[in-house]
């Protein structure tokens, strides 16, 4: 996980110019698991077949995909995600 974070995730965050935002927001670590959960949830929302989701996430048991990684998203979740997305925008400066 550390190699992935250092070689892949951190350079992507830096390229998007949001590499300092999570830290400024008090998020100590932004890593692979958050992206795995997001990926599983988005695939569910767009109707990706369950076997495809299971394969992409590398789960031996389909229950892991559905129980631990796929989350239902309601209007309040979307509103919160949009607000956080706006805060992470490279064009928005955080005030300390």
| Order of secondary-structure elements | HHHHHH
Low-confidence stretches: none
Shape: globular
Radius of gyration: 15 Å
The number of distinct helices, counting runs of at least 4 residues, comes to 6
Strand content: under 5%
C-alpha end-to-end distance: 30 Å
Which sheet architecture does the biggest sheet show? none
Mean pLDDT: 82
Provide a short characterization of the protein structure.
The chain has 96 residues and is mainly α.
Q: Could you please describe the fold and organization of this structure?
A:
The chain is an all-alpha fold and 96 residues long. It has one domain (2-88). 65% of the residues lie in helices and 0% in strands. It is built from six helices and no strands. The chain has helices spanning 2-15, 21-24, 32-45, 50-57, 62-69, 75-88. Helix 3 crosses helix 5 and helix 4 (50-57) crosses helix 5. The longest helix has 14 residues, at 2-15. The radius of gyration is 15 Å and the shape is globular. The mean pLDDT is 82.
